[in-house]
Amino acid sequence: MKGENKNNKTSTGGMRQGASEAALIDRLIKQDESAFRQIIPLYQPSMRALALAIAGDSIADEIVQEAWLAMMRALPAFEQRSSLKTWLLRIVANEAKSRFRREKRSCSLEGLESDNGVMAERYGSNGHWSLPPARWELATPEAILSEEELKECIELTVKRLPPLQGAALKLKELEDYSSQEICNILDVSASNIRVLLHRARNSLYEAIEHFQATGNCRPCG
Amino acid sequence: MNIFRRRGIVDHAVSGIAMLNCKQVNELAGDYHSGELSLAKRISVYVHLLMCVHCRRYVKQLGVTIDSVKTLLEEPACSDKALEETISHITNNKVKKD
Fold it and tell me: How high is the ipTM of this complex?
């Protein structure tokens, strides 16, 4: 799915938007099994990745299954103002957020409580660097990903991101959605999406920087 | 005519260009990489980067961070088992038609 254009005017999951998607939706409404066999392999990995980011591994599969059923119920009323996939991801996000709130009330979905973002302490009051970035020895993605422990550290850092930061990051960097589409899927304001992405990217930046300086993954928190 | 029209666009962009400090560049760096900044903001970041070695390094390394994450987190394909489980879940719970 990586690198696909999710724009409504072109393609989604290898399917042309428009007439072919309308025909597919029609078959789904008629509960045609071959239509499900067509879309499940295309959409399920993205749905699971989103559910995983928001609600965690233990209930991600359950959320995805619930989302398919919710889609079945709501499909006759679907107005096709977005692509089927975008709409389906919105259903997953809503289900995952409500499950998260039900089961983990003490944690924050967004991780935006602090006014100062990640890295804010590295700037002086005049907005210039007080703790400038170190030059990385591993300076390309290939070099970084060839270090097994650093790879694990990045994966761990992604897992530790507050749920909506992780979800926004996956929708942006893996699914290639625009910020406007992410607002639509996660039901978050445009300014909050900017902050969520900014903090997620900087957390990962600092994790890689810390690992390169110390050989260890940054402790949680 | 085209020249005037083009000049109009440039004037509009120039009017939005601002001197940024390093912290402001940090806030815009992700959108700078994804191409989601307006022309004026893009020029503002670019001008700052010409002058600031620390921000050049940060912006470059942030790009490396983003590309590493993209490669690392590629979604696994849907397994046949998962496909069959989902199909059976849906068919066992088919929505009753009116």
Answer: 0.82
